Amino acid sequence: xxxxxxxxxxxxxxxxxxxxxxxxxxxxxxxxxxxxxxxxxxxxxxxxxxxxxxxxxxxxxxxxxxxxxxxxxxxxxxxxxxxxxxxxxxxxxxxxxxxxxxxxxxxxxxxxxxxxxxxxxxxxxxxxxxxxxxxxxxxxxxxxxxxxxxxxxxxxxxxxxxxxxxxxxxxxxxxxxxxxxxxxxxxxxxxxxxxxxxxxxxxxxxxxxxxxxxxxxxxxxxxxxxxxxxxxxxxxxxxxxxxxxxxxxxxxxxxxxxxxxxxxxxxxxxxxxxxxxxxxxxxxxxxxxxxxxxxxxxxxxxxxxxxxxxxxxxxxxxxxxxxxxxxxxxxxxxxxxxxxxxxxxxxxxxxxxxxxxxxxxxxxxxxxxxxxxxxxxxxxxxxxxxxxxxxxxxxxxxxxxxxxxxxxxxxxxxxxxxxxxxxxxxxxxxxxxxxxxxxxxxxxxxxxxxxxxxxxxxxxxxxxxxxxxxxxxxxxxxxxxxxxxxxxxxxxxxxxxxxxxxxxxxxxxxxxxxxxxxxxxxxxxxxxxxxxxxxxxxxxxxxxxxxxxxxxxxxxxxxxxxxxxxxxxxxxxxxxxxxxxxxxxxxxxxxxxxxxxxxxxxxxxxxxxxxxxxxxxxxxxxxxxxxxxxxxxxxxxxxxxxxxxxxxxxxxxxxxxxxxxxxxxxxxxxxxxxxxxxxxxxxxxxxxxxxxxxxxxxxxxxxxxxxxxxxxxxxxxxxxxxxxxxxxxxxxxxxxxxxxxxxxx
Length: 745
Description:
The protein has four domains: 2-155 and 167-337, no CATH class; 346-466, no CATH class; 513-631, Jelly Rolls (Sandwich), CATH 2.60.120.200; 642-713. Helices cover 44% and strands 21% of the residues. Strands 10, 12, 13, 14, 16, 19 and 21 form a seven-stranded antiparallel sheet that branches. A five-stranded antiparallel sheet has the order 22-7-25-29-28, with no helix packed on it. Helix 8 packs antiparallel against helix 26 (717-744), helix 12 packs across helix 14 and helix 15 (264-281) packs antiparallel against helix 16 (287-309). The longest helix has 28 residues, at 717-744. The protein is globular and about 90 Å long.
């Protein structure tokens, strides 16, 4: 798959260049096609097109189809044939429902800016013109309803909360340089492209003039970036779909300048406007970026002057050279900072997936299995299924199961990443046991797991005491009782009972608070000053210290440690306790994780009283330190899982089936996050779904032997397919109508 994706992305970038060239060439005279080539070169060598072809490919993988859509619109304008327009729109939306919104907006601006005066002479005429120009686009969009409807419904129930912004933040002009130049999470242009946009504002009335005005407003007003990001944040990455329009304006600028069709006064005015905006926006930029800007603007000024005085293609050649230089610098900077060769070899090492496949072949029951390695290698595995049949506890998506995320927060799982949307892997022993993570594969040992196979870097660790994937129990506790508990009590409760809305009221009495102590420290790394009120940390490098517990128990216990973190510096704060990592993101991060209270759960061996704490560099204070120990009720824990359901996966892949002998009336409990799309059948009859443990799928059960079947059907999937079929029929009818009309005219 790695090789396939690399080849696919190379072809995608080649397709971007070819399609952009042919699209722009249609706007130039044949003898001026060289300008179209340089414009296409600008597109493929911008920072986001290079960077995201290696990282977040969803930012750019729709681009060939956006270019096909733009070319299809031109063809529709010329010939009244809309096949290419419909196909391009369909494939663009199919590839990326997120960025296709920006792509459709770019198409709309492109089309509107090309309207003739007679087509906008009155509102009824304008409405009719817009309908005739754009109704084929609706076919391309609505043909995707088979997946857009289920996606929309999933977003309604699982979309993370939107951020709020003031009117000033949305409408006050933002000219930050990083939005426009060099950076992959902006447009990643060079100065000449921005000069072309600004100069086009001074053209005589033409499509290019209105395009330049629209794009300049679009880039400067934050409300557009906010809207195209779905209201999540104000980030320039949503403007990437407008790169083809900028490439077109740049090629047109080269053409006008090279053919002496541009007045030098307007050339100077455009340069001055671009310089004013860029220099104003560079105030908060790094010294390196400012140096790049000075050099880039100076090169552009000289090249423009030489184009007027010496050779008409001078600016084109100089700009092409600048594109290449910036592109090479981007690749060179990314080569080692993005991911090292050693890390890539570890990530793509097939021995890990081979080991997991062996486990799945030997143990064919349903369970979860995850990999464990050094921090930098665990990140790429959050969404990664390495073997068919592997089940995870992790995930990273803007659309997630909200109840599952809330559950993880309610029991105080560590947040090890900068982004709060990432449900990262954790070594919390209670959570691993509760979620049925039976096997861990990798190079790091985890408390509660025993090594059963030593393969060097990919050893296999097993925990035979984890909860079954699905079971029936009558050991319940009410949701109200659960909500009244603190995070540590909730974890202990999960080992003994199942949370049900109308369950009995109970208290968890298995926890006891203990004191803990750590000495102050002053060394080469910095200082850690411990007082009764707080622990003040100021470190230049990582420092490892020991926390001593007043623990005299001779039983296996769980340690629950928490403290408030007050960040005194605009820098990430990472702290590890016995290898478990928590991180507080710096305040101005786009994905600020709000993790101001660090929670840790560690397994303690009998008599163990020392805990290792690794403090990250930075300046921060720790306060409200709380420390509890708890001993699980072994009898209650063992009886909780007595009636296990032996499941196998359905051949369709969309569920499970199995059988169970139920000792007492109770509840079917799974570790599958709850979703209304699930259906549970007991002895062939569908039963009502129940939320168990506040976030998971369950149902009521009666005593006796029963067959169980769990199926999943995405909400809106049937309606979406039906609507796509209807749109296809309407499309065929409209195509036939146009063909018949042409033949009879």
